[in-house]
Amino acid sequence: MDPRLTLALLGARATTLAARLTRRGGGTAAPGLVAERLDPAALRKLGAALAGGALVVGGTNGKTTTAHMVATILDKAGRRVVHNRSGSNLVRGVLAALAAQSSLGGVPRGDVGVIEADEAALPAIVTAIRPRFILLNNLFRDQLDRYGELDHIATRWRAAVATLDADTTLIVNADDPMLVGVTAALPRERIIYFGMAAAEPAAVDRRLTLDVLPHAADAATCSRCGGRLAYRALYLSHLGDWFCPACGNARPAPDIVARDIRLDGVKALSLSVEATGDASAVNSSLVIRHSSFPLHVPLPGLYNAYNALAATAAALAFGLSPGEVTSGLAGFTAAFGRIERVALEGREIVLALVKNPTGFNEVLRMLVGGGDADAGLATPTMLIINDLDADGRDVSWLWDVDFEILAWGEAPLHTAGIRGPDMAVRLKYAGVAPGRIAAHPPGELRAALLDFVRAAPAGATVYILPTYTAMLEARGILVDLGAARDFWQQ
């Protein structure tokens, strides 16, 4: 037994208990801070004790959902999983989760770790844990006042993966040219690529492809030569089947491929997954056999097809079978605030976190006619915008979101939150009819939320699109009203 680690774990447990007794949060971060103060090596020690190794999930969007998917698949397959399921993803949050799921002797109550990592914290987390796998899902512009320019994050990630052990495997979204640039210096045998089937826009639902790069797209230039990228098919922001006409740099052939994607409105999606078997051919430590299998995902939106494909790649890398992946995802329930469905006063509320232009665009793309932009918005929707540290203080990013697609349709749009007035102004300039906008004053979210829900017909489904702290505040209100559970109890 390591006395210093035991003291750190005792301190973490006491802090968790105090936080929950005083209702000052769920004790998802402060316990890790206490543990780190008492034993700075605690994260390294607990990570090393995971007999089956750890997966660290990184990316701007979809981290919580993807990590939750992987943990669910592994758990249903009989693996004992340690996971920071609350989404607290800084170093202190990861340590708090590991501490809560370990004995006082420092033995995790699981053999596999699934760790979601904040973009800025990912280098420190992977350096401490030395994971078996790192999953990189995407890189988009997010909170410039906190993270800085996207190239800064990419540079830090590139340096971090360059120092990893030779037996660490990267699971990388081949459709993201930023991520391919981050991992370009690594040997091919250390990378499992996943992505959409090559250049099939004419063969799939037109809701899956974009005609031009959105205004919010970030990676328009080649990481090798700086030339402007071109696309055979463009799916989401800058994700697609990309190539550089100037130097020949191009999307790597994915090892795990998504085909035949079908969006079922705002309820679910389906796709066919093909594992080519090429990853095992170049890396003898992997057992990913050639296979093709259908996948049903009880979440909507093309962005969740990417999340499910990423989770599938990770599960296959852990040695699970296609059948285990399929059954694991079939009963998947969303992480809190991420297409989370709750009932209140005879209406269904769907919470969909929005935190940057790309994520907001994809949620709107999903909502507007279930993907058919010509149909317009048909569902009452509330946009709650805060500008606290965890949201990003600079809300100018709202002008990079394509709110213009909301101008069609008749559904009401409610605005609330600290920067609710800014959101109302943005909707006005997007061409939304003033009569459709209900602007609630800041500081009155409970009343605004109840007014919004009660204005909808009984039995209706309504959507709430909040930034991060607004989501926590809205969920707190829903918990008080008996419609939801505290996120640390899920």
TrEMBL record:
- Which positions make up the signal peptide? none
Question: Which EC number(s) are documented for this chain?
Answer: 6.3.5.13
- Record Gene3D superfamilies: Mur-like, catalytic domain
For this UniProt record, give its keywords in alphabetical order, as a comma-separated list.
ATP-binding, Cell shape, Cell wall biogenesis/degradation, Ligase, Metal-binding, Nucleotide-binding, Peptidoglycan synthesis, Transferase, Zinc
Lipid II isoglutaminyl synthase (glutamine-hydrolyzing) subunit MurT C-terminal domain residues are 353-471
Q: Which PROSITE patterns match?
A: FOLYLPOLYGLU_SYNT_1
Task: Write out the GO MF terms.
Answer: ATP binding; carbon-nitrogen ligase activity on lipid II; tetrahydrofolylpolyglutamate synthase activity; transferase activity; zinc ion binding
- Stretches assigned to the Mur ligase central domain: 57-200
GO biological process annotations for this chain's record?
cell wall organization; peptidoglycan biosynthetic process; regulation of cell shape
Q: Where does Zn(2+) bind?
A: 222, 225, 244, 247
Residues at the active site: 394
Q: Which reaction does it catalyse?
A: beta-D-GlcNAc-(1->4)-Mur2Ac(oyl-L-Ala-gamma-D-O-P-Glu-L-Lys-D-Ala-D-Ala)-di-trans,octa-cis-undecaprenyl diphosphate + NH4(+) = beta-D-GlcNAc-(1->4)-Mur2Ac(oyl-L-Ala-D-isoglutaminyl-L-Lys-D-Ala-D-Ala)-di-trans,octa-cis-undecaprenyl diphosphate + phosphate + H(+); beta-D-GlcNAc-(1->4)-Mur2Ac(oyl-L-Ala-gamma-D-Glu-L-Lys-D-Ala-D-Ala)-di-trans,octa-cis-undecaprenyl diphosphate + ATP = beta-D-GlcNAc-(1->4)-Mur2Ac(oyl-L-Ala-gamma-D-O-P-Glu-L-Lys-D-Ala-D-Ala)-di-trans,octa-cis-undecaprenyl diphosphate + ADP; beta-D-GlcNAc-(1->4)-Mur2Ac(oyl-L-Ala-gamma-D-Glu-L-Lys-D-Ala-D-Ala)-di-trans,octa-cis-undecaprenyl diphosphate + L-glutamine + ATP + H2O = beta-D-GlcNAc-(1->4)-Mur2Ac(oyl-L-Ala-D-isoglutaminyl-L-Lys-D-Ala-D-Ala)-di-trans,octa-cis-undecaprenyl diphosphate + L-glutamate + ADP + phosphate + H(+)
- Pathway named in the protein's UniProt entry: Cell wall biogenesis; peptidoglycan biosynthesis
- Supply the enzyme class, top level: ligase
What family does this chain come from, according to its entry?
Answer: Belongs to the MurCDEF family. MurT subfamily.
On assembly, the entry states: Forms a heterodimer with GatD.
Q: Could you tell me what this protein does?
A: The lipid II isoglutaminyl synthase complex catalyzes the formation of alpha-D-isoglutamine in the cell wall lipid II stem peptide. The MurT subunit catalyzes the ATP-dependent amidation of D-glutamate residue of lipid II, converting it to an isoglutamine residue.
Q: What is this protein called?
A: Lipid II isoglutaminyl synthase (glutamine-hydrolyzing) subunit MurT
Q: Which organism is it from?
A: uncultured Thermomicrobiales bacterium
Q: What is the lineage of its organism?
A: Bacteria, Pseudomonadati, Thermomicrobiota, Thermomicrobia, Thermomicrobiales
